[in-house]
Amino acid sequence: MSTASSIESVLTEHRVFPVPEDFQAQASIAGLAQYQALVNEADTDYTAYWAKLAREKLQWTTGFTQTLDDTKAPFYKWFADGELNVSENCLDKHLGTPTEHKTALIFEADDGVVTKLSFRQLYHQVCQFANGLTALGYKVGDRALIYMPMSVQAVVAMQACARLGVTHSVVFGGFSSKSLHERAVDVGASLIITADEQRRGGRSIALKPAVDEAIALGGCDAVRHVIVYARTGAEQAWHDGRDIWWDAVVDGQAMECAPVAVNAEHPLFVLYTSGSTGKPKGVQHSSAGYLLGALLSVQWTFDAKDDDVFWCTADIGWITGHTFITYGPLAAGLTQVVFEGVPTYPNAGRFWEMIQRHQVSIFYTAPTAIRSLTKAAENTPECHPRHYNLSSLRLLGSVGEPINPEAWMWYYENVGLERCPIVDTWWQTETGGHVITPLPGVTPLKPGSCGFAFPGMDVAIVDEAGEEVERGKGGFLVIRKPWPNMIRNIWGDPERFVKSYFPAELNGYYLAGDGAQRDQDGYFWVMGRIDDVLNVSGHRMGTMEVESALVAHELVTEAAVVGRPDATTGEAVVAFVVLSGDVPAGDEAKRIATELRNWVAKEIGPIAKPKEIRFGENLPKTRSGKIMRRLLRFVANGEAITQDVSTLENPAILEQLSDAY
Ligand code: WTA
């Protein structure tokens, strides 16, 4: 981890965009006074603030009497004697209201075919699938692994699990069978829900075969069924007795299914994310607290209104897809777009065309997408957003990595046409919902800053001793008080949970793992990770995960992975590799680099492929044998190393690695 003082400010941005008056006039939190009132309420009586919201926003089967149980901190419990069902709060609650017949999902397939479902229709699909799961013997406490394309069925599968109290763990469809296997074993899945294939950018990508491979790796003895949704109808190898088609599961099932009330703390899902070690962390979320945070984020940050059409472009395999597709928008009764494909197919105007076609009013995407579409609009001018009617938009959002001011300005001018506020939302898999974000009816915007704390969140920037640093100084981003939708545990590893997030020096504060600073106006500026976690295209990955994958290859004896700033993907993976044989050169080096890149794609997934691989006969190490990744970062960036390297065991290696490319 870096030291707090090494987190430098990169702040040069002075533009401020005021809150549009008409926006403020209609906003759910309208103006600074209203924001301040909420902040004061939370300050005055923290638990009363959250208790009131939990009672107001959620439907309880059994009301809670205790708001926060901190007796086993940092294993906090919220609303612990209450009971509810999350799916009931997303679907049943709208029955008998005007929302019942409103469109819940507008699903657009890769090939452009559109399917719409009302809340009532979605409710029936969820009930039928849940009944099918019950018939197969699944019940509260079981774990289901979901490995699916973006689809109506993926939302149905997650909601059906929630309905029964089956804890789901969604694995991104771009992960390899190895990654899938690791997660299935760790979470102890007894059920896997998948599809035959997924369609992206006009191509079919197999999913079910990866599940077969994962199970064949062994250790998944708990898995009793693999449910397969036929997306393309591709021929499948079939394991009788274990594999079952989606249609057979729902066939003949009743259209109603009573939701199973679970304890507020019941794990709704476990979602794996990267940390500083080679092993992904199973982030365990609760039911009630998580849902409260998801709903508030939709209502407050996105200012959701009944006639909005919401579109979050994230995949359901990430937390953003959980909170802003499967749970938040449904709980808020919003119409939303769900998209199967990629932003560049059939051309780079796809997002803009879809906004126009579906009259999207709130659009939430990632900086990496904005940067690549900016580039595409230059290269293929016919795909520039100006050729589309984007007048339905009223609010834009950004998430996943720091957005650089140039990308912010392009988004603001070309997509939002200088009318739409941009909410740059900072949060994490572990936080469940927004933590620092502008509120569109409250916060004047500074490009590149994520504004202020979400009402009720106690965010600060501190030094190594947990002391708050002065304005303008860099430090660690922490959350000082527990909050309802926080991570509850790392699945099966409570020790790692405490060690990773609540280090003893920091007074019991939650350590986010990001470096940040606040400017003189109190705006937060997030600088990026302080640990060995990379952020490539908004995807979190641990350098250790990529290193472990590399050294698992028979030719590799040692590997060190660092990030390098990249104009499109934010960061790019650069790997320094020592082979068991000689240092390769020329075509030989190219051939082995390609082989290793493909190997990493197979071990983890294509998102983890190193952009560049450099070979050396050694790695820069201290005399105690520690790899100096900091120096490698300079090398990867082609920067001169100014610091003293005489303490290195092998200073000459730096030159070799710098020349290696
Ligand atoms: C980064 C995604 C700057 C950050 C929701 C965080 C951001 C990590 C922003 C979490 C933002 C996310 N500005 N950085 N608006 N949003 N990050 O768990 O480093 O996939 O710690 O959750 O992404 O990534 P995760």
TrEMBL record:
A single MF term (Gene Ontology): acetate-CoA ligase activity
Keyword annotations from UniProtKB, A to Z: Acetylation, ATP-binding, Ligase, Magnesium, Metal-binding, Nucleotide-binding
Binding residues for CoA: R200, G201, G202, R203, T320, S537
A Pfam family this chain is assigned to: AMP-binding_C
Record-listed Mg(2+) binding positions: V551, H553, V556
Enzyme class of the recorded protein, top EC level: ligase
Cofactor entry: Mg(2+)
Modified residues (N6-acetyllysine): K626
EC number(s) stated in the UniProt entry for this protein: 6.2.1.1
TM ranges: none
AMP-binding enzyme C-terminal domain: residues covered: 545-626
Gene3D superfamilies assigned to the protein according to its UniProt record, in alphabetical order: 3.30.300.30, N-terminal domain of ligase-like
Catalytic reaction(s) noted: acetate + ATP + CoA = acetyl-CoA + AMP + diphosphate
Location of the Acetyl-coenzyme A synthetase N-terminal domain: 35-90
Family to which the UniProt record says this protein belongs: Belongs to the ATP-dependent AMP-binding enzyme family.
PANTHER family: ACETYL-COENZYME A SYNTHETASE, ACETYL-COENZYME A SYNTHETASE 1
Cited function: Catalyzes the conversion of acetate into acetyl-CoA (AcCoA), an essential intermediate at the junction of anabolic and catabolic pathways. AcsA undergoes a two-step reaction. In the first half reaction, AcsA combines acetate with ATP to form acetyl-adenylate (AcAMP) intermediate. In the second half reaction, it can then transfer the acetyl group from AcAMP to the sulfhydryl group of CoA, forming the product AcCoA.
Protein's UniProt name: Acetyl-coenzyme A synthetase
Organism: Alcaligenes endophyticus
